[in-house]
Amino acid sequence: MASTTKLVDKTSSWQPTDGLLLEVDDLQVEFRTRDGVAKAINGVSFELREGETLSILGESGSGKSVSAQAIMGILDSPPGFITGGQVRYCGTDILTLPEEQRRRIRGPEISMVFQDALSALNPVFPVGWQIAEMFRKHRGTNRTDAMAQAVRLMERVQIPGAKQRVRAYPHQFSGGMRQRIMIAMAIALDPAVLIADEPTTALDVTVQAQIMSLLKELQTERRMGLILITHDLGVVADVADRIAVMYAGRIVEQADVFDLYAQPGHPYTEGLLESIPRLDQKGQRLAAIGGLPPNLMHIPSGCPFHPRCRYAEDVCRADPPPPLREVGVHRLAACHVSERLLAKEGTPAQAGPAPATGAGDGGGGDAGAHHGDHGDERGGDGDMDGDMGGDGDVEGGSGR
Amino acid sequence: MVSYTIRRILQMIPVLLGATFILFAAVFALGDPSAGRCGQRPCPPGYIAKFRAEYHLDQPLLVQYGYYLGKLFRGDLGTSFYGNPVAHELAIRYPTTIKLTVIAILCEVIIGVAAGVLAGIRKGRFLDNLVLISTLLVISIPVFVIGNLAQLVFGVKLEWFPPTAGQGSLYELLLPGFVLGALSVAYISRLTRNSVVENLRTDYVRTARAKGLSNARVISVHTLRNSLIPVVTFIGTDIGSLMGGAIVTERIFNVNGIGNFIFRSINQKDGQSVVGAVLILVVVYLVMNLIVDLLYGVLDPRISND
Q: Which InterPro entries would you find in this protein's record (chain B) (predicted)?
């Protein structure tokens, strides 16, 4: 049912050229608060194609959710303001569209799944009603038909007893079921782009996997472009095609998922990968990135990561910050020392024991030695990387 | 839900018994009601004796209360000092009080909720500040000042409304009704404003925007439905207290309602009338509270009345 409608919808207004759905170009967002101006997004650019999954990875406060809200057009304003850049959907800059046209994009074209479904669903309306509202308000479907479609969607996202539970309220469902309802609502009008903002963060680990595979399944089925926002490296490994790592409102590295896991091109990414706990390192200290993310009101000069970076040199502290540039095939990084980082341990294909570089990386004994280890194992692991997406083992990506 | 309702109604019985006894004792403590019955001159002893015997005033408190309860169980609210049944005295005055309440509540709902919603969605702007300041003003001025001022300005000087409401017609009651509701209008607009501000920040309102719903729908359906839950509670209990009559407002505008009746009965130490009137008032209050609690369960599905 929905797919036929989709064809009608798409031919009428929005058609991607060459499969290119979304282009975010130098997006800038700031929050003007009483205490000062927080620069939440400082020139973010990326693209999303049909059927592609882009994962935006970063700590809290790195600007990943704000980017999503800016794209959706649901940024709280004030205090949030988009101060520059473009968000082109099917070639049209939607930031310049009048609100009424913008509104018609939300739902049928670009849709969003939120983190905590219990608070993101309205507590006083039945779940079926909330799903049906999409059909009623966007397509003018009558109540009965919209409700029937809601039931079908709930069945599609595998909610047992959908017909009986369509009139139940959000608090009467478990966390996983609620997130399924959230997803059903987001895909109701068959959007071309789905933004999932930490869709599994509030869920149990077992349920996380189910939700991720449901998202992946729906994406494949509908050829949606999926933007998956997360801080959890484990979640993205199986699902994402490309990863954009954000830090202090900038994309610091963008690469295909295998490349990124195999060989980070930015010290921050490297730190993230190292901080995944590993079973075979029991008893050792967890490798955490030292220091804290910067205060967005006082972002350090030059590369915003330099105070925490073990490779930092003088050039890193000086403005302008390193631009996001091509550092390899199909990969971008915003770092002065990317090449050194990429060359350091060799490509995954080469089994490169790297004690020398490990000692020379300036980060001090422990971290350096650990780093060497890492390279070793990854080298041995290299030929497996092709299977990684399928086998579902997250730690496999960072070397086991 | 049914068993909850029955339980709540049964709980009213001890409350009512306690309330009647406290009231009865309070009026008893006021002293001899026969004093001053005959103006400046003392009453003839025969009249006083007959008067006391008729209302059992010569008996101890508990016996008087016993007589009263006995009548009450037979559905008799007693007899006022004018010789009319208290039930009759209340029946002729309640329509006026109800009209007054309806006008006051309508003011509260229409002005209070509208001002609150507008202030809430324009938080921090001019309208919000206007509502905050004007409600603060209303809250800080005593009702007898507002009442007398309104009577003087709109009733006497401008002659827009009748200055008094002796007949109790709807038109006459507009001004007193507005004065009566003024304080609650202020409270409700502040309550609504804060509730709307709070709800606009919630995740589900953000979801509603992400669903591509129009701004009007996001506010009127997704925000208001949740914002009005505390407001409905407030209005419910307010109806309960307004139905008890507004002594000050009814005195100012000479409204012949329950408030005025209670005032006069207290002055005359007319125990049966006071207790009868207040008893009804307590019942209305309890019933309104029950309705509010039941409504709460309907408005917010997360609350169950079991």
A: BPD_transp_1_N (IPR045621), MetI-like (IPR000515), MetI-like_sf (IPR035906)
